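It is worth pausing here to work through a concrete case rather than discussing structure prediction in the abstract. The textbook approach is simple: state the sequence, then state the predicted structure, then interpret. We follow exactly that order.
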Amino acid sequence: MNLHNPSLQPVEIADLKPTQISLGMREVQERREQWRERSGKDLEVFLSRHVVPTVMGPKQRHYLLDHHHLIRAMIDEGVKTVMVSVTADLSELSKNSFWVVLDNRSLCHPYDCAGRRRDFDAIPKSIAKMEDDPFRSLAAELRRAGGFAKDPTPFSEFQWADFLRNRIKPQKLREDFAEALTQALALAKGRDAKYLPGWCGPDAIK
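Step two, the predicted structure:
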């Protein structure tokens, strides 16, 4: 990768490209509520603490490396521009080579809302067209509830989402999120979850 010192620059939010297929819309809604609670200096401080990292791809387009939920919330709240930090320039690569490099470095997540691996072409062209994965929202809430620790492993919450997807019925998640979270908390402490990033269950399960 052609790494360089990150530089801040304003970018039209509508021009930002995602590097994953899905996100959790429940989490997006929470970001929107957080956004509405802030104004003036408080909003400036919030934005300064949430630098939006991008990588330059083909045709000099900015591809998000993080904060997809925040950016989607900003879109829904009518925000037009955002300051981004360009961390690498891969604009000279072909489209396919660009995605292969990102994939090899765990900088993209081409998995759909059912946890299935897809072709790179399935990654939406805009943030607004990303799929909703309710289990991604459940995984985020599980972490906030202490079910697992924040971990630097790329896309760790998607790994937890897939773990929960195979153990909690989608209907339960749709109809009773609180009960689904209770189930998730119990599952997170079990031995079956021990391989997952941030697992913080007991050392021995009786």
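Step three, interpretation. Residues 3-132 form a domain with the Conserved hypothetical protein from pyrococcus furiosus pfu- 392566-001, ParB domain fold (CATH 3.90.1530.10). The radius of gyration is 18 Å.
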